TrEMBL record:
Gene3D superfamilies: 1.10.1760.20. The keyword Disulfide bond does not apply. This is ECF transporter S component. The chain crosses the membrane at residues 20-41, 53-72, 79-98, 104-120, 125-142, 148-166, 178-199, 240-260. It comes from Gryllotalpicola daejeonensis. Keywords: Membrane, Transmembrane, Transmembrane helix.
Length: 265
């Protein structure tokens, strides 16, 4: 084998391959995303929307079960992987419960982002599901909002694992932390907006500039929703979450990433 062929083989092996499990996880996420976005594509009167939400949430349960089963492949067959999931799941659930008691100060995103970055997108996705499910059982927060929260936090963990790689070197560690902190801020605002979607159509009485209008176009409702999110969570709760995440990653990002990567070996 020539040197060029060997180099091509190494490059090919180093690229992450998207197998059928990965494609199925993407398909499940697309189904969930459609569940989030229904106010823009499926007009309904507010009272009808409120009655339909429990059924919509129930319809997302099979997608959750499917992605959970698909995520539990050979990558999680080892005792080390199970132990990491258990420990990080407990830490994340405790962090999320703590965040429920102090408005907006939610350190759970720090756990999800650092774990997803160090241990991979699929691990981050599964960890997000486990953290939300465990914390919901602890606090009794089980309701039609839960499937939406499960996918939103799973996407946060998976997204961290899908961020671009940085070149090896001492300076790259600082670059990686800055990238993760920026991602954490953006994720904090996006998740807050996503979780507003499931109840926004029936949260505000009709007739205002931030209320859902069944016969309005997509752009009109999108504008109303953006104004609603800015007024109710983006500039307050979500911004506090973003600051908490950025500060936490800046303070503990480098040592925690190093520790998780050592544990992965």
């Amino acid at each position: 084998m020539t040197a060029n062929a060997q180099l091509a083989g190494i490059r090919s092996a180093s690229r992450p391959r998207l197998d059928w499990r990965g494609l199925a996880l993407i398909a499940g996420s697309i189904v969930a995303a459609a569940g989030f976005a229904w106010p823009f594509v499926a007009p309904a009167l507010p009272q009808d929307a409120q009655r339909a939400v429990p059924y919509l949430a129930l319809a997302l349960v099979p997608a959750i079960v499917a992605v959970l089963a698909l995520a539990l492949d050979r990558q999680f067959a080892s005792a080390k992987a199970v132990a990491l999931l258990g420990v990080l799941g407990a830490i994340g659930a405790a962090a999320r419960v703590l965040g429920d008691t102090v408005g907006g100060i939610e350190p759970v995103f720090i756990v999800l982002i650092l774990a997803g970055r160090a241990l991979g997108a699929r691990f981050g996705f599964l960890l997000g599901l486990i953290v939300v499910a465990a914390s919901a059982v602890i606090t009794g927060g089980i309701g039609p909002w839960l499937p939406f929260q499960l996918f939103a936090c799973a996407w946060v963990g998976a997204g961290a694992g899908l961020l671009p790689r940085v070149r090896a070197g001492r300076a790259s560690k600082g670059v990686e932390v800055v990238m993760l902190a920026a991602y954490g801020a953006i994720a904090s605002w996006l998740v807050g907006a996503l979780l507003n979607l499931w109840f926004w159509p029936f949260a505000i009485a009709s007739g205002s500039s931030i209320s859902y209008t069944a016969d309005a176009g997509m752009l009109a409702n999108l504008k109303a929703f953006v104004l609603y999110s800015l007024a109710t969570s983006t500039l307050t709760w979500d911004t506090v979450r973003a600051i908490t995440t950025v500060v936490g990653i800046a303070l503990v990002g480098r040592p925690v990433l190093a520790a998780l990567r050592r544990a992965k070996l």
